[in-house]
Amino acid sequence: MLTGKQKRFLRAKSHHLKPIFQVGKSGVTENLNKQLEDVLEKRELIKISILQNCLEDKYTVADEISVATNSEIVQIIGNNIVLYKESENHNQIVLPE
């Protein structure tokens, strides 16, 4: 579980990121979750965009992805979700205490 200070730190780091995945009409699929896990292992912090044709609520999508990838939701702003998962092999981000 992330503390408030850690979430602030990660929000600041994610500000300049562009969304690298989009969730559309088909919603959250098993293939999407597999790709997200791979990218989270490499980058640790990613931004996902939810398209307007997505039938599910953005909070539901964020929860589904978070549970499937075992990651933390840093922020949901507009139609963007920011996720963080500490990497096992590619540690790049050092969180504040």
Summarize the structure.
This protein has 97 residues and is of the alpha+beta class. The protein has three helices and four strands. It has one domain (4-84): YhbY-like (Translation Initiation Factor IF3).
The average pLDDT score comes to 92
Order of helices and strands: HEHEHEE
| Approximate helicity band | 25-40%
Radius of gyration over C-alpha positions, nearest whole angstrom: 13 Å
* CATH architectural category: 2-Layer Sandwich
Oligomer: single chain
Form type? globular
Q: Which features characterize this protein?
A:
97 residues, alpha+beta, Translation Initiation Factor IF3, four-stranded mixed sheet, 3 helices, 4 strands, 38% helix
3D architecture notes:
With 97 residues, the protein is of the alpha+beta class. It has a single domain (4-84), classed as YhbY-like (Translation Initiation Factor IF3). The protein is built from three helices and four strands, in the order H-E-H-E-H-E-E. 21% of the residues are buried. The mean pLDDT is 92. It holds the Pfam family CRS1_YhbY.
Any chance you could write out the topology, listing elements then pairs?
Layout: H1 4-14, E1 21-23, H2 30-43, E2 45-50, H3 58-69, E3 72-77, E4 80-84
Parallel strand pairs: 1-2
Antiparallel strand pairs: 2-4, 3-4
